[in-house]
Fold these 3 entries.
Entry 1:
Amino acid sequence: MPSEREKMIAGEPYRASDPELMEARLRAQEVLARYNATAPREAGTRDAILRGLFGAVGDSPTVMPRFACDYGFNIRAGSNLFVNYDCVFLDCAQIDVGDDVQIGPGVQLYTATHPLDAALRRSGIEGARPIRIGDNVWIGGGAVVLPGVTIGDDAVIGAGSVVTRDVAHGAIVVGNPARPR
């Protein structure tokens, strides 16, 4: 029988109240508290903390405080990542970020989903779908990327956009819901 963590990672319905998942979230919160409290001049320490939190990260990452995520281990980022202030990555499923990605302040990446049926929602069942962000993507401040979205290489997401569907390679999308410009 798969664990709730295994079900979550596989994209199957799972219970976030599972003790193993609750412990993993607490661990991430402890790591994030250290990370967000570390002075910018302590770049080596910040880098080491980030590498201990994320599943994988390439060279030269910059993630400004206050950064928040659920688990951290489901985040994989390439080289030259820049994440501006006050971003939230709900990483119940994999969040894959390519190389040379710039993410503006207040951006939110949501992999978590909840059942539309109220009774099922009350039962504590949740779901998650991965987010994939290609190379050389710029996501403007305050944008929200919803579960299951893939953003192609060289794309631009306008500030404040809500991305509900995949974004093509090189596309510029804006608005709520985000549409090609």
Entry 2:
Amino acid sequence: MSELRWHPVLREWVITATHRQERTFLPPRDYCPLCPTRPGGVPTEIPRPDYQIVVFENRFPALQRQPPEPAVAGSPLTPVAPAQGICEVVVYTPDHDSRLALRSVDEIERLIAVWTDRYQELGGYDFVKYVFIFENKGEVIGVTLHHPHGQIYAFPYIPPIVQRELASAADHLASTGRCLFCDILAAERGDGRRLVAENADFVAFVPFYARYPYEVHLFAAAHLGALPDLAPRQRRSLAALLKTVLVTYDNLWGFSLPYMMVLHQRPTDGEPHPEYHFHIEFYPPHRAPDKLKYLAGCESGAGTFINDTLPEETAARLRAARPPAVD
């Protein structure tokens, strides 16, 4: 069962998806559903002996192309709606023991091309208003499969965080005539203390307002709204800086750092959204090698993050862990 239930106090949709309780949970390596199907081996989700990148629809989707009718009747106070949408899995590599940080710049560039293709195709459906590309990495994040992969949710509405970003950006554009994200980037570059890495087309930094201790944002240097706006050189630059950030995270404390990686780009609701600016955000849950940043009462109940570190100091630690070059 999948359905949308309206939260009248926060004014946002909640997805109820009871069938996801049955999804595969941390299977043994030999039974990984994302590995290639080897001759004589256990059949997997990918019926080929090898591949580069694979995209397929999630077997346990929160949103469905043809969703069932809601289980309960709504009311004017608490409407319900079918959970129409599309959920896809993006498998980065056939190598079960790899991770995105270990892939080459060429392979990451290929992944960006896949993301771009999926953004365009999924965003072309009239019921899709937002294409959300993300990766959850690490058991502490809550992943249920170890094999390197990401996900894509094609939403029938614009998610709340993106709505807030759009509103802030639209207000800033109306009052100043400038892009909010471009101004943030100019301020970070002007200050310099929170920069982690940059190249000709993208900049990675710990934002002044970081909520997670080692949060990193990766902004396009030019005012671009979404992946399809990237020229070939910019796509290559994005791949190179993504690789740098990922390797930096793994170098920080000498282990593969868990994180949430989310791509924020222009909605696909048919509006132009000139105020929006493509960027990627990373939320690692660690505040120290042996300590996690939990979203406890203040964060979850009041919506106010408490950061136990100074962004200027965490950025310096990340710069010290940055690799000299990537390939």
Entry 3:
Amino acid sequence: MRRAALLTTVVWAAACAQTVLPPVQGVEFFGRRGLGALKCQVEPLRPVLDFEFRFHAGYTVRAPLNQYRDPGHKWTVAVRIQPESAREPVYFTDSLTLPDVSSTGTEGEAGGGYLLGQGRYRASFLLVDDLGRGCRMDWNIEAQPGAGNGAVKMAIEPGAVQEVSWRGARAANSDAAPFAGITVLLHAAPVSPRLSKVQASDAVTLLGALSSLLDLAPAESVRLVVFNLEQQKEIYRQEHFTLDRMEAVRQAIFDLQLAVVDYRALLNPAGPMDLLSTMVNRELHAERRSDAVVFLGPHARSTRKPTFEVDAPGSGAPRFFYVEYQWSDRYALMGRGSIAGSRAVPPGSGSVADGSRRGGGCPVSAVCNPADSSGPPIMPTRDTIDYLVAMLAGKTLVVHTPGDFAKAMKQIAPWKAAKSPK
């Protein structure tokens, strides 16, 4: 019964990179008048500094699907980002096809994102459906480095607005590549321990960390495995992974429904340890073993000291690392961005309720302002992956910020260089 209830609460979720709309078309779209009222809620996503030192920002929009009685309806969404500087605004757009669901209590959810440089911006949102209805919202954005990131060099100049993209790792077979082969075991799980589902901002964190790892610790060949401990399964595996396959990884992460766990997983408390043991043994006995195996992801919920069925590494075994992102209110998701604005209102309603969100808890993305919390951060206990990596004589590198991440990469990449023959 619980599974059915969860599936009828939100039946559609998408988190897409917006595409740039030519200014003339953007002005025309936002100039539309006479739209009917569409019930929807828009939640701006606080700008977060990813592990590539770029601010990601965006929104989540939700609407009751019982507003549509027939299948095949569509949304057209546009966002206008106006920097505080003298730059011209940048327009983004996306088109979404709604699912064929119209039962009472069913809600559709979608989201979009873009990249920002350091600075202040004004965002305007307009959604128009194929029935000539729409809703609007405006909000302010402030993108500033958070605690521990003041000295890092931003990858985007101040006041700039760009499409979401993933930087390519250094070219294969490059003299700069310290690894012949590397395996990344990416734990797809919520960044915040308070949440049960992977959020849009979680995907930003995970994909940004993966992209940055492959850029800062490049390899001639990359094996990528994406897994989830609560589901006790791999959700994606790719030999010779390259960043042009990032969309497939993103989709695999969003396909996770962590709030709906198979009952067979609940009956097998040793399942997470079995999954980790299987993946490690597969790396130890691979025909082409990697130089390094890097677990990458947020602090795991399973924290008891486990028992693993792992074979002895033997000579020539890869070196194991765990880059563990630990979320806390004080170091909340790497950034210090803020938003302030008004709730979404149907066009023509004449009602706008101003409500400041600066320092007022967490929005949908579960990203809080580090300045909102006081006192030392509460550090979680050791988790299952940490125990496994220690058993394999590996090293756990805890990170809270992009600055921490860059320091962690310096401990991983030089290892191979130090071991290589002169």
